[in-house]
Amino acid sequence: MSLLELRHVRKHRARGSHRVEVLRDVSLEVAAGELVAVWGLRRSGRSTLLAVAAGIELPDSGMVLFEGEDLGARGARMLGEGVGYCAQVVAVASRRRVIDNVRAGLLGRGVPAPVAYASAHEVLGRVGVERVNGLLMGDLDAAEAVRVAIACALVLGPRVLVIDEPTKGVDLLERDKIVLLLRSLADEGIAVLVSDGDGSGLSDADRALTLADGELRGRNSPQMGTVLPLRSAGSSSGL
To answer: Which residue range is the domain that position 197 belongs to?
Structure first.
């Protein structure tokens, strides 16, 4: 059984005086250990697709399942308790220290401050930016901000990571490193679903699908058996 599954999802948006169907009968499965990328042009609905997949938004019809259970019925608590979500990085909490931003989710769940600090420090090392833990969020470059956003999701121990355009605005030399990081997380057994607008996030994906005119095109379910990454875990060094 796939960890994350969308079944016949439809979603509409208002654009001016028109009501546009952004997602049309979209079905998709993502398995543990799989990195799946969804490519689409601007206004293709890829960000909407990921928000629905993570449970941030409810579909107008259809279902989103996590471990076989309706994500909508389980409520917002599933964010961070199985599903981690990273939106496009924006300049928020710019005067907050990185370490405080990462541990905030744990503190909000009642984790003691020393434990939350240690966990946040560990996960920053896991994503390759332990050196920035004392910096302010507003002092990070684009690549560092993406890694910190991933750390904020990972610190809560999700089994599924949904991340919207992780390479957008990132310097060309850093993009491959971000993709390799996501590949390494999938190799650890996390189901990773990403969106992509320029093709830079597709290189290490197990599956790459296209979203156009509200329709998701490509292989929407994993092959039978164990998911095999395109790149071996040993080649992910130097993240």
So the answer is: 4-221
